Amino acid sequence: MAVYKVTVATGDMLEAGTNNSISITLVGSYGESLPPQGICPSPQKPFPPLQERSLSVHCGQDLGPIVLIRLHKWRLFLEDAWFCKDVRVTAPNGTLYRFPCYQWLEGVTTVEVREGSGRTHPILKEHRRRELATRQEAYRWKNYAQGWPRCLNVDSIFELDSNIQFSRIRANNFTGFLIFQGASHFLSGFLLRRTSWNSLDEMRTIFSRTQVPEYVAKHWQDDDFFGFQFLNGNNPIVIHRCTTLPLKFPVTPEMVAGSLGGGTDLGKELQEGRIFIVDYKVLEDIPTDTIYGRQQYIAAPLCLLHQGTDGLLRPIAIQLSQTPGPCSPIFLPSDDEWDWLLAKTWVRNADFYSHQLLTHLLRTHLFGEVFAVATLRHLPTCHPLFKLLMPHFHFTLHINTLARSVLINPGGLIDKGSGVTYEGLLLVVQRGLEQVTYTSLCLPDDIRHRGMSHVPNYHYRDDGMSLWEAIESFVTGIVTFYYGGDAAVSGDTELQAWVMDIFTNGFLGRTSSGVPSSLQTVAELIKFLTMVMFTCSAQHAAVNNGQYDLGAFVPNAPSSMRHPPPCEKGRAFLQHFLDTIPEVATTANILVALILLSSQLKDRRLLGQYPEEWFTEAEPRRLIRAFQGQLEEIRDRIEERNHLAELRYNYLNPLETENSISI
Ligand SMILES: [Fe+2]
Question: At a CB cut-off of 8 Å and minimum separation 6, what does 451 contact?
Fold first, then answer.
């Protein structure tokens, strides 16, 4: 007779417990414990959340090393889903086996859970094959639109299984927040006013008087702040150093001489690396929409910036189209105040689209979903990279499914509240994906490629690099622990299928992107995993968390423009400006979304927090603690810098950076 001591733990979330019947079978190398032993044998003895239950399993013989457990759930009357946290089994010889589960059991079902250390055994090979076959049936790709990354094959959040849905507490928090914000804007009358704002000052009345929006309302007209936002705003990845002016942007030395200061000229500044450019060509000829029956307009501007002797970036020339000529003048800081302000506002409007559709939606949310779906399809639960990556996909499939239902769908918020039609939105993302490179997804390479290594006050770069290096160091520890060398990487067929799936369905098999379709070495694997984790955590935080801060004062990030770009100078004035930027109702619509998307919902998990203990060995757990220690040091450095700053850059503070794309 062999007696095994079994402890089963229920998760801590609301409704994790069950009153359905639960039993367990132990599977060892020499045999199984039969029949299944009851953990929660009857509705009279429910299993509440956050509790453990212990039992002894008596077997006629020693089962050998325990490699697998089976959890059986059935019901007599009402269904009551159960979230199992983990199971621990102590063998008669004192050996402890841990089985991290972290999943919902729904309906009448049997779930097999492998021992956490990932030992190999012939029984497990079949288990692994069955698990992946089940997952590939449950998580399928679909084409959302031509030329887009593929996404999960569901049409609404109600089709998502419990393991990838928002928790109940988060779902309630999200809905409550949306209703409250929508109602308050409705009651204040903003959502019903289809007229222009009466004045610039009136626009301050729509947002709460918090520090950053107030700062923006005060400084939005300053050239310094305009330049600052290309480094530390919501879209800090579009600016690059300019060494040769493009022919389509014929700025002459005379035009900018006054902006450059004495003792230098445009040629010298270009040569010495102090000229920068932003090009919104991706917006050229994008179909435009009507809002409340009125035609909207989109420009594809070019903006030239100069780094002054004080280190600050300031715009020195703006052209609002990709085609120079008499109908597309080059605007300069020396122009009339309203001409220059309107030109800068057109750039900010182009930046709104570039940020929302490409930097935010495509390059974090959609790629994050690709990584998540490929992981579910190709990496079994026992795979160390599944354990490493899954926490970084927490709630991503839910928020993206929601976005496809209410935000980017025909008639959704972007369609209604911005100047692009639904077709235009599809086209921008399609063009964006055609231009994505692996270099641009890997921060150190991206900074070098854009020539931005030495620009001062580039906090996105500095904080981002600190986080990249911390993630890379953690990933290096995990990969070297589990992979003995390059041959182990190239020979891991599950890993290779995973990378190929990402390449094929995320980047549509475009080799010119430089995105790998296979990984041959430990170094290649470390870089790829760092990119995935950075994209899903830090990069999303950098481009998501400041949306309300920087967008609450609408002239700083207008979602739409109601007059065409000016063809000549000298025609802009205050009323024309107010009649160009979004009317009150559109402002309110967009603001409700920005508040929600920048909010900190309940249940959020910060970078480096791994409440699910997928790894059971000592070394990965030590690596997690070391990673958390590094993040604390980064936090201290950022807070020390912010303490002295007039405008804090806090979007990459680990205290503000979530583990995953969840909002
Ligand atoms: Fe987001």
Answer: 240, 241, 243, 273
Binding positions for Fe cation are: 360, 365, 540, 663
551 CA to centre of ligand 1 in angstroms: 14
Burial of 7 (0-12, 13-18, 19+ CB in 10 A): middle
> Is there a contact between 339 and 356 (Cβ–Cβ < 8 Å)?
no
Strand partners, 98: 88
Gap between the Cα atoms of 176 and 183, Å rounded: 10
CA distance linking residue 565 with residue 658, whole number of Å: 39
pLDDT at 180: 67
> What type of residue is 371?
F
* 399 CA distance to ligand 1 middle (Å): 8
Q: How far is the CA of 511 from the centre of ligand 1 (A)?
A: 28
**142: helix, coil or strand?**
strand
Q: What pLDDT does 187 receive?
A: 59
Per-residue pLDDT of 245-267, as tens digits, reads 999 999 999 999 999 988 999 99
- Tokens 């955590």 appear where? 537
* Three-state DSSP class for residue 56: strand
The model's pTM: 0.93
Residues with CB under 5 A from ligand 1 (ion): 544
Maximum Cα–Cα distance across the chain: 95
User: Using an 8 Å Cβ cutoff, are 403 and 125 in contact?
Assistant: no
Q: Residues of the chain whose pLDDT is less than 50?
A: none
Tell me the CA–centroid distance for residue 362 and ligand 1, in Å. 10
Helix (H, G, I), strand (E, B) or coil at 320: coil
Tokens 């239902």, residue located: 405
